[in-house]
Amino acid sequence: MGIAPYIIVSSILFVCGIVVMIARKNIIGILLGIELILNAAALNFVSFTKFSNSNLDGQVFALFIILVAAAEAAVGLAIVIRFFQIRESIHIDSATQLQS
Amino acid sequence: MEYSLSTILPIVLLPFFAFVLNSFIVKKFTKTAVTISCLAIFVPFIYALRIFIDFVFNKYSADYYIHKTFTWFDLSSGSQIFKVQMGIYLDNMSAVMLLMVTGVAFLIHLFSTYYMHDDPRYGRFFVYLSLFTSAMLGLVLSDNLFSVFIFWELMGFCSYSLIGFYYEKEGAGNASIKAFMTTRVGDVFFLLGIVALWTTIGSVTYVDIYKAIAENSLNSPVFLFGLGIPIATFAGFCIFMGTIGKSAQFPLQVWLPDAMFGPTPCSALIHAATMVAAGVYLSLRMYPLMDAGGLLEAIAYIGGITAFGAATIALVQTDIKAVLAYSTISQLGYMVLGIGVGAYNASLMHLITHAVFKACLFLSAGSVIHSLHDHHTHTAVQEMPRMGGLRKKLPYTFLAMLFCTLAISGVPLFSAFVSKDRILGDALVMATRSSVYLIPAILGLCGAFLTPFYMFRMMFLTFFGEPRDADLFKHAHHETLSFNRNIPLLILAVFTLGFWYSGSLTGQGIGDKVFPDSKYEWFQVLVEKPVLSKFTSRTTTPLDVPERKEFIESSHYDPERGFASEEEEHEVHHIHQMGAIASIIIALSGIFLAYCMYISKKFSPAWWTTTFSRWTAALRNRYYFDHFYVDVLIQKGLLQLNNFLAWIDMGLYDRYAVDGWSKVLTLFYSMSRWFDNIVVDSILVDGTGISVRFFNIVLRTIQNGKIQFYFLVLLLVLAGYVLGFKPVI
User: Fold this and answer.
1) Which residues lie across from B221 on neighbouring strands?
2) How many Cα atoms are found within 13 Å in the side-chain-facing hemisphere of B380?
3) How far from each other are the two terminal CA atoms of chain A, in whole angstroms?
4) Residue A14 belongs to some domain of the structure
5) Which of residues 694-723 of B touch A (CB under 8 A)?
6) Does A100 touch chain B (CB under 8 A)?
7) What is the rounded distance in angstroms from the CA atom of residue B131 to the CA atom of residue B204?
8) Which letter does DSSP use for residue B547 in this model?
9) Nearest to A93 among B706, B711, B715 (CB)
10) CA of B718 vs chain A CAs: smallest distance (Å)
11) CA atoms B46, B47, B50, B52: torsion sign
């Protein structure tokens, strides 16, 4: 079994994330899409490391990505909460202005 | 006497200060002003007398001269030298001229206190006289042509003002303008000559000009209408044109007879004795230039034609002053003839003798005119046909006038016999040497025959015979001896005697005792042609350094100079003797003819005028010169030229250039309006707004703040990049 199934899965994940990011109007949904993309990238790292050489660089990167994704989700959710307090909405199209 | 600027300049400055002062005080203090004017000429007269005695008796030498300069203004910068210097040039000729001018001017001032006394503008007359005297003295003392020109024009102005002095009189204003404009023709040439010399030599002082001539540096040609003329000829001609204008020579003689509109003393001073003689004086000063330019023959012709032509016109004049005016022109013609035949000394001598006797003649005429008052028209009478028999009423005037008339006629023992005969003698000598001079000599001799005739005609018509206007004669006051009427006349009359100028009654004698070296008369030794060689060694002297020659004990005059041999000198002497005898005969026959016509009535003047009626008409109309100038030159020539120029101005310039230009401008304006409306307003101004709005729309559409839109764009760009489209940015 080669690398192709991994790449396909990660591609599907990536495309799903992109679609979610573009199509969803809910900010939390968009954050979910970003999580999907990050996961697709992490999956790529791991699978390329597995098939190219024997060290664990990819896996380490995947761990970092999970860490960064968690931090990013925390920050993103904090922004969303603050945004909701101001606008009473989490619709993405209500965030077109730089100031409140 | 120590000569420096401060001791010589007062001669010029005293009358000038009198002029300045008098022009302010003359209205209120007329008498004081007149006294100041007379004093301001008397003191220079004493000065001039001292200088004259000093030059003639103490420092006697023909080539002694004093030349002192001061800088008038200095515009030099770096190597560019432009420095105008003024100065005085005093030699024997200036000394003689000074004495003559101051003496005659003083006597005329004195006479004017009588003649002008009842005039409403009594004081103003003296103001002009002072200015004039100052200018004339300045001209005599000038060391360069530039200051000569300044004084020359000042005199012209005074002449203009005094001719128009009686401006109420019809014609006086026109006469003054005519005199001014006619002399202006010559003056323009004179200025041209000065400029020509200035550009060639870089200086216009006499000594520098003489030096340049001696070094032959005036031979470079100037190109005029394609003809190369030596600069000496060109400058000499131009300066001689100044003489022609000022001294009323042919063909610019027309102004002098009209100048008789002025008061008689001013005619005596300006239009007989000094100003008109200034032209001759200038030509004498510039004699070496004329000689170097080869103009002497032409000058002789001008002089001969003037001397004869003016004498013929004088034959038919009835106005006593007009006779004298034409006589003046004629005598000035003799002086110019003298210059032309190289009789330098004789020409100056005639200038001096003529100034004395012609001033006296004019003053006498003034005395006659003043005594004849027409009670019907309340004017003074100048017409000779209404005079006659006046010698009983005016004995002193008659005596003075008789002396002067004898003098001008060239009767022996009188002054013109000495001076005019030397001119005619030299003319005859030149005529025997070169046939070119034959015509001027003959014209001069014919004029010498006419001179006594018309002068004695005037005498006989005025003083002899029966009174032709009994009423006028009855009202004429009997003359009593008065100091300001008769004394000037009598003093001048005394100086018409020949021995003052020749040193003896016969022309030889006393002179031998004063100057034992010389067998010539004192005047002949006094002035000689400028010896150019003495100027070549002259280097440019620093300023204000007195240039004095050593005291010279004996005369440097070399009587043998100019004669190749003993025989030639003998021959010249012989011709002079023949000329003298001929002119005595001519003078006496002229007087005799006048006697026959007007006293014994053997020949009737009426017969001559009817037989030669066309000639008489020509003479009465002054050879139609005035007609020619007015009707042909001015009406046909100048006015046509004016019309032509006006046509160019209005028909061409105004019509095509000015109006055409306005059309061009209108077109240009409409074009620029179009440009303004279309290009500037519509495209640039509005276009800026439109483009801003356009980009506004574009940018607003792109930058809409929708994050998903940004993301989509980002994705598309990335996708394009991956698929091989190079993005622009």
Assistant:
1) B230
2) 20
3) 54
4) yes
5) 704-708, 711-712, 715
6) no
7) 25
8) B
9) B706
10) 13
11) negative
Quick one: tokens of B30? Answer: 């007329």
Scanning B116-167, the segments in alpha helix (DSSP H) are: 122-141, 145-163
Q: Is residue A100 part of a domain?
A: no
Residues B55 and B95 sit within 8 Å (Cβ to Cβ):
yes
Question: Among A34, A22, A19, which Cα is nearest to A70's?
Answer: A34
| CA angle, residues B618, B622, B627, in degrees to nearest 5 | 90
SS3 call for A36: helix
φ/ψ of B80, rounded to 5, equals -80, 110
Cα atoms in the Cβ-side hemisphere of radius 13 Å centred on B68: 16
| Beta bridge pairs of residue B70 | B86
Q: Tell me the torsion sign for CA atoms B177, B180, B182, B185.
A: negative
> To the nearest 10°, the Cα dihedral for B253, B258, B263, B265?
20
Provide the CATH number for the domain around residue A40: 1.10.287.3510
Whole-angstrom CA distances from B513 to B64, B413, B435, B508, B509 are 22, 20, 39, 10, 7
According to DSSP, the residues that pair with B90 across neighbouring strands are B66
pLDDT at B545: 38
- In angstroms, rounded to a whole number, what is the distance separating the alpha carbons of residues A87 and A67? 30
pLDDT computed for residue B564 by the predictor: 53
- B394: Cβ contacts below 8 Å, ≥ 6 apart: B367, B368, B371, B463, B476, B479
The token duo for B615 is 């000639």
Contact call for residues B454 and B315 (beta carbons, < 8 A): yes
Ramachandran class of B378: left when φ > 0, alpha when ψ lies in -120 to 50, beta otherwise = left
Task: Say if residues B218 and B235 touch (Cβ distance below 8 Å).
Answer: yes
Q: Is the pLDDT of residue A100 over 70?
A: no
Q: Which helix (H) or strand (E) holds B380?
A: strand B379-380
Per the structure block, which two tokens stand in for B375? 């009670």
Beta bridge partners of B319: B383
Q: Could you state, in order of their start, the residue ranges of all structural domains in chain B?
A: 308-502+563-620, 627-720
And the tokens for B599?
A: 């006293």
The single residue listed with the structure tokens 């991956």 is B722
Secondary structure letter of residue B228 according to DSSP: E
Q: Is the CB of A93 less than 8 angstroms away from the CB of B704? A: no
Q: Low-confidence residues of chain B, pLDDT below 50?
A: 504-513, 515-519, 539-562
Helix (H, G, I), strand (E, B) or coil at B442: helix
8 Å CB contact between B316 and B619: yes
> What is the model's pLDDT at position B482?
84
Return d(Cα B448, Cα B410) in angstroms, integer: 8
Judge if pTM exceeds 0.80: no
d(CA A87, CA B110): 124
Please report the ipTM that was assigned to this predicted complex.
Answer: 0.82
Whether the Cβ atoms of residue B591 and residue B452 lie closer than 8 Å to each other: yes
Best probe of the A interface among B708, B710, B712, B717, by most A CBs < 10 A, is B708
> Residue B45, CB half-sphere, CA atoms under 13 Å: how many?
17
Contacts with A95 from chain B: Cβ below 8 Å: 705, 707
B151 Cβ neighbours under 8 A, 6+ residues apart: B135, B136, B138, B139, B142
Tally the domains of chain A.
Answer: 1
**Nearest chain A alpha carbon to B703:** A96
* B72 phi/psi in degrees, rounded to 5: -85, -55
Cβ within 8 Å, pair A92-B715:
no
- By the 8 A CB rule, do A76 and B686 touch? no
- pLDDT tens digits, residue range B633-652? 888 888 899 999 999 988 88
Closest to B3 measured CA to CA, from B94, B104, B97: B94
What is the model's pLDDT at position B77? Answer: 78
A91: tokens are 């619709």
Instruction: Determine the 3-state secondary structure of B336 from DSSP.
Output: helix
Query: Structural domain of residue A80, as residue ranges?
Result: 4-94
